[in-house]
């Protein structure tokens, strides 16, 4: 949800006019933009308060040289070793089959045996993507009998184990070094130490106040967020049908706090070139954001692009046409 994957070429083109060696991707999400900056040869600081986003960035951006080899695969797919049964107990009859839940418990336990933080994050990223692909519609708001969603698609036909092997291969194939010391962070944007790391440019793509429904990432992705840390220190709300973890508060999601949130954030990063990704369906509107940024930056440029977002990945795909902006203060 909200990934800038399809806009990477545009972002790259627009930013190539600016001189910068180091960059903070403050709301990294899928990690796609961090990976773009890495491929542009920048020193990348990648940050997100979700642990799964941190996992993606650690695996693909910070990791310059570790891949999962056959020996690692053997460890990961070892189904003999005793493992905790938390996933089986907690998500029985909610997501996946009992055998698949057993597989997830075993793999999660085996990941810890890899003894290398980059290999661990790669394996976690691969199991997360496997779960996403195997889950009908790719969101964890629906549960129980999923037959009605099964349209015979390959992603639903493959077993979790087959997906996992495939994802490991894909992740292995994208690991490269840009000869920079890139770092992934798992924190709130306001906790980032901008004085110490002093990034030349800060790319900010926060969630925005939703027009309807809500934009909560945890609501849709709670299962994979939990999986990325085996639910350690996470509180599960057992009163919910899908056993969600607690939503993470962010001031960007509410009308009454969003404007101040932008103001505080722009002030925090006033010494860097500030690039805000935003779209025409967001709140506050463009004019307000430019005004706030103008308090800290004298030179403001606005880049625009028409874009269609896709919601859902099943039969009922709706497209919402928006104008995408890069609001750049230098
Ligand atoms: C629109 S998404 C970013 C998408 C990303 N640019 C991509 O291409 O995948 C917004 C992200 O902000 C994160 N987030 C929201 N509030 C945050 C905060 N206060 N500090 C850090 N991350 C936050 C969410 O977890 C989510 O991953």
How would you describe this structure in keywords?
alpha/beta; 330 residues; binds S-adenosylmethionine; globular; two-stranded antiparallel sheet; Rossmann fold
Task: Quickly describe the structure.
The protein has helices at residues 8-15, 32-39, 51-62, 70-76, 86-91, 98-111, 117-134, 154-157, 160-174, 194-197, 217-227, 255-268, 286-294; strands at 22-25, 43-47, 183-185, 201-204, 236-237, 244-245, 273-279, 300-311, 318-329. With 330 residues, it is an alpha/beta fold.
Here the CATH topology equals Rossmann fold
| Class from helix and strand fractions | alpha/beta
**Beta-strand content estimate:** 15-25%
The helical percent reads: 25-40%
H and E order: HEHEHHHHHHHEHEHEEHEHEE
Compute the separation of the termini in Å: 29 Å
Shape: globular
**How is the largest sheet built, in terms of strand order?**
3-2-1-4-7-9-8
Mean pLDDT: 93
Number of domains: 1
Helix run count: 13
The major sheet is characterized as: 7 strands, mixed
Level-1 CATH class name: Alpha Beta
**Count of beta strands:** 9
What are the bound molecules?
Answer: S-adenosylmethionine
CATH architecture: 3-Layer(aba) Sandwich
The CATH H-level homologous superfamily: Vaccinia Virus protein VP39
The unreliable regions are none
**How many whole angstroms does the radius of gyration measure?**
20 Å
How does this structure look, described?
The protein has 330 residues and is of the alpha/beta class. It has a single domain, classed as Vaccinia Virus protein VP39 (Rossmann fold, 3-Layer(aba) Sandwich). It is built from 13 helices and 9 strands. It has a 7-stranded mixed sheet, sandwiched between helices. Strands 5-6 form a two-stranded antiparallel ribbon. A hairpin with a 6-residue loop joins strand 8 (300-311) and strand 9. Helix 3 (51-62) packs across helix 7 (117-134) and helix 12 packs parallel to helix 13 (286-294). The longest helix is centred in the middle third of the chain and has 18 residues, at 117-134. The chain is globular, with a radius of gyration of 20 Å. Bound molecules: S-adenosylmethionine. S-adenosylmethionine is lined by residues 2-4, 27-30, 32-33, 48-50, 53, 188-189, 205-207, 217, 250, 252.
